[in-house]
Write a structure and sequence with these properties.
single chain; mainly alpha; elongated; transcription; transcription regulation; HTH_TetR; DNA binding; Homeodomain-like_sf
Amino acid sequence: MKARQDSGPRERLLTAAQRLTYEHGPTVGVDALLTEANVARRSLYEHFGGKDGLIAEMLRRSADEDIQRYRAVLDGAGDDPRARLLAVFDELDAIVTRPGFRGCRYLGADLALPAEAHPAHAVTGDYRERIHALLEHELVRLRHPDPGAAADQLQLLIEGTLATGAARPGTHPGRIARQLAERILD
């Protein structure tokens, strides 16, 4: 499915990068991105300075969208911080069991782009800090005795759920992670 033609080249490149890098990884070829977006190579360089800039900006946009999804899940679970945090694992279980689930795009980028200076790593690091802050905020509200360490543990469960969901489809890792999260919260 090609990017919509009623959007500009920048938007089409971002849309194409979001889809193709999720399906094929961040090492997908420039030609495939250009074809999917139906843009000239010049547009890639004008808007992003090259493929590395496109990947970083696509991850930034994806991170913003994913943070909003986390907030929506938390808010949708009511006001109780424990219920809010456990709802994250219920949602993750639903996500990882959907057809076409391919894992965490941020972990995938970190693993596929080994150069430490790649701009994607700053974006994935910032994304993880934002997730940690969301978790820690809820843990403070819960009056957890060590909200920072508990947020680290919950974040590990989140990332493990996403990795296991991709590597072992049909195993419902979100359910197992939820049980472990309950112990952390208690």
